[in-house]
Amino acid sequence: MKVTGRCHCGKISFEAEIDPAQVRICHCTDCQTLSGSAFRVNVGTLPGTFRLLSGEPKTYIKTTADSGNHRAHGFCPDCGTPLW
Asked: Vertex 60, ends 5 and 48: CA angle to 5°?
């Protein structure tokens, strides 16, 4: 399924292919903080299908847990909309 989206101010837009059966709800504390809610809905894109159509997102790299793994959070630098 092809999806399109944009940030709140419209400076960043994108398109991708997703599998609607893979939509997930996450209740981790990062998703709660980023959404201001008890959860955040997300879906992975099919490999190689995510494409930025406009804008330049900013990326924040967060080190997580004791594992030292890193997680990239992409967002609009103007309106702050989380993108990935």
From this structure: 45
Which residues, 6 or more positions from 69, have their beta carbon under 8 angstroms from its beta carbon? Answer: 63
Quote the CA–CA distance of 62 and 30 in Å, as a whole number: 10
Torsion of CA 13, 23, 50, 4, to 10 degrees: -30
**pTM for the full predicted model:** 0.80
pLDDT at 64: 75
Quote the distance between the C-alpha of residue 21 and its chain's center: 18
Coil/strand/helix, residue 47:
coil
Which pLDDT tens digit goes with each residue over 26-80? 998 888 988 899 999 999 999 999 999 999 999 999 877 667 788 888 999 999 9
DSSP characters over 9-43: SSS-EEEEEB-GGG-EEE-SHHHHHHHTSS-EEE-
